[in-house]
Amino acid sequence: MDCPDCGHDRTSVVDTRTGEDGATVRRRRECQRCSFRFTTYERPEWETLQVKKRDGRIEPFDRGKLRAGVERAVEKRPVDAATVESLVEAVERELAGRGTRIVSSSLVGELASDRLRDLDSVAYIRFVSVYEAFSDPEEFLDELDRVLDDRFERSDGSDDPDATTDDDSPDGTHTDDADD
Ligand SMILES: [Zn+2]
């Protein structure tokens, strides 16, 4: 690589580092003539979106696999196939818009679970219990608590008739607060 400063064609690498994503190499170079220092980046040029898994393996993004995961989560829940398909499409669009050809599997899971959370809490919990691979049951329970809190908050102040299907009070009357 020619020196960007003086154009000399001999530079030496003074430092090499692998990027955080494991798919980029950053080299610090020094011109052998003028000692100008600069940085170059080396990364593979993927033709399609790649997913980096937890164990470090990289494989092409597979929308069928994502769809299957979402389908499993919404099984017997009031979420139809068209909704699942548009969720998968939305996730894929968002991944493509990231400006990188390599994304982490946890990002894929996160984007899908964010959307599932708005659709159906049961499906959401099922999905994250598989995808987030909670290392600790406490974490899972915390997440469950957060979802349940959200549901109470949502059904509290809202006039949305759909909210009553998840409501504990069948006649729609609320006591002021669950807290005594
Ligand atoms: Zn130079």
From TrEMBL:
Q: Which residues form the ATP-cone domain?
A: 49-139
Provide ranges: composition bias, Basic and acidic residues. 171-180
Which residues span the membrane? none
Q: How is the cofactor bound?
A: Binds 1 zinc ion.
Recite the UniProt keywords alphabetically. Answer: ATP-binding, DNA-binding, Metal-binding, Nucleotide-binding, Repressor, Transcription, Transcription regulation, Zinc, Zinc-finger
Acidic residues compositional bias, start-end: 158-170
Q: Look up keyword Ribonucleoprotein and say if it applies.
A: no
Instruction: List residue spans of unnamed Zn fingers.
Output: 3-34
* PANTHER family named in the record: TRANSCRIPTIONAL REPRESSOR NRDR
Q: Which family does the entry's similarity section mention?
A: Belongs to the NrdR family.
Question: What name does this protein carry?
Answer: Transcriptional repressor NrdR
Q: Which organism is it from?
A: Halogeometricum salsisoli
